[in-house]
Amino acid sequence: MTHEIKVFAPATVANVGCGFDIFGLALETPGDEVIVRMTSTPGVKITSIVGDNGKLSLDPEKNTAAVSVINLLSFLNIKLGVEIQLIKKMPLGSGLGSSAASAAASVYAVNALLNHPLSPKDLIPFAMEAERVACGAAHADNVAPALLGGFVLIRSYDPLDVVQISIPIQIYVTILHPKIEIHTADAREILKPEVSLRQMIQQTGNASGLIAGLLQGNAELISRSLTDVVIEPLRSRLIPGFFEMKQAALNAGALGCSISGSGPSLFALSLSTSQAQHIGQEMVKACRLHNTECDVYISPISREGPKIL
Ligand code: HSE
């Protein structure tokens, strides 16, 4: 048995506009890396974290990489120890699924060291428990695409039913990350517990339209469906200049643009790298009008989840 492994897991865009808590997609980059070592002394330890500016806890009960592994080992009834080195290569609190990438990479690594007793899909519930620790809600729309790659639909939470959506065309994602931090727990706190019948009709129409558009590779249908009438109106106020940046993306030819996960990042979809880059440049200009520093990431929707390095 190999005792040490290095694994990468990707950043993800959760919600994808109209699919709050039920849609997510994986990027090729950025992402997180972990080095995981099995030891004979039981217990899960975080031995080091780099790239987090000291913000993450080394306490295994509070760190998503460790929490997911503790849950996995307990399910498999394995009494070995695990040491995790976490290498953060993406911003925290950015809406790009940073906690999910660490959790996905860690459970994937431990499962690989144990000779794959579980499938990547089976690993989702353990990584979801880490999300509960990170933000109070065990949502799967970051961890599922981080573990499976591609575009994922969480059809149901109870029982968990995760559906992979295959897309016959290449879709590119532009991420604009304004450098402010939003905690997912706070961004969930401001949501209303109820939606109106009218909103329900619009949102389910768009969500169904988006899935149909992706499956058919129908860019116009994807574009018409990328509208969120429930969450974006409430959360956009947390992001200075949101509507100007969104408009800049649409003017530059994006199929659609909305908040990535709980923000502050925005995502915009398009059909080529050059278009994705142009959209990024225009969004940056709009962001700077609000005196906010920002980063841009460009990536196709990835076709794979974690990678052994
Ligand atoms: N669906 C979650 C939310 C994703 O929007 O709160 C958080 O990354």
State the main characteristics.
four-stranded antiparallel beta sheet, Ribosomal Protein S5, domain 2, 26% strand, binds L-homoserine, 309 residues, seven-stranded mixed beta sheet, 2 domains, 11 strands, alpha+beta, Alpha-Beta Plaits
Question: Could you walk me through the main structural features you see in this protein, from its secondary elements to its overall organization?
Answer:
- By secondary structure, the protein is α+β, with helices and mostly antiparallel strands.
- The protein folds into 2 domains: 163 residues, Ribosomal Protein S5, domain 2 (2-Layer Sandwich); 129 residues, Alpha-Beta Plaits (2-Layer Sandwich).
- 37% of the residues lie in helices and 26% in strands.
- Strands 1, 2, 3, 4, 5, 6 and 11 form a 7-stranded mixed sheet that branches. The chain has a 4-stranded antiparallel sheet with strand order 8-9-7-10, sandwiched between helices.
- The radius of gyration is 19 Å and the shape is globular.
- The two termini are 17 Å apart.
- The mean pLDDT is 96.
- L-homoserine binds next to helix 5.
